[in-house]
Amino acid sequence: MPQLNTDGRRSVSFILNGKPVTGHAEPRMLLTDFLRQEMGLSEIHVGCEHGVCGTCTIRMDGRPARACLTFAVQAEGHRIDTVQSLATPEGALNDLQLAFRKHHALQCGYCTPGILMSVTAFLEINAEPSDAEVRDMLSGHLCRCTGYVGMVHAILDVAKSRRKKAGSTATA
Ligand code: FES
Ligand code: FES
Questions:
Q1: Quick one: which of 15, 33, 51, 72 is 20 to 30 A from 166 by CA?
Q2: Of the residues 30, 35, 60, 68, which should be mutated to test ligand 1's pocket, given the most ligand atoms within 8 Å of the CB?
Q3: Against a cut of 0.85, is the pTM above it?
Q4: Looking at the domain 95-171, which fold is it?
């Protein structure tokens, strides 16, 4: 259980992008604010602040979650992944990020970190999605500027190349 400090904040410990971290949060502090203010993660974006736009999506124990609907203390003992978990420590983008770039699937990029978290989890459970399934998954996210066609193309493209890679590995 998180410890209550004398200033009313609680200590919160969890695994953030593969590394153990500890911070302090008031019981009502949202995970969005905690990740931005206490952990310095500027890639955590906030839009609607009530679970509609998807901009703040992170992964909690692998499952997409709205950080704006999660209290920081709820992260205690869990694994939290943000978009930082996709690239290498040296900053090399992964195949999904490269596909987004190739297909012009972002413009201002404000919605992108949250979308990439949802897409990553989605492709783990659906390696061969249809166009309609991709669009249905994206319906949980709002993009204000670039539209969704490029995203659909990027996601289908990366799913196809991952299947091809998995097939060649299996037959090697
Ligand atoms: S800011 Fe969390 S869903 Fe919009
Ligand atoms: S790329 Fe600008 S909000 Fe989606």
A1: 15
A2: 68
A3: yes
A4: DNA polymerase; domain 1 (1.10.150)
pLDDT tens for each residue of 70-106:
999 999 999 999 999 999 989 999 999 999 999 999 9
Q: Which atom of ligand 2 is nearest to the CA of 115?
A: 4
**CATH 3.10.20.30 matches 10-85:** yes
Q: Is the CB of 109 under 6 A from ligand 1?
A: no
For atom 4 of ligand 2, which residue has the closest CA? Answer: 143
Segments making up each domain of the chain, as ranges: 10-85, 95-171
- Substitution site in 43, 48, 60, 117 for ligand 1 pocket (most atoms within 8 Å of beta carbon): 48
What single letter denotes the amino acid at residue 65? A
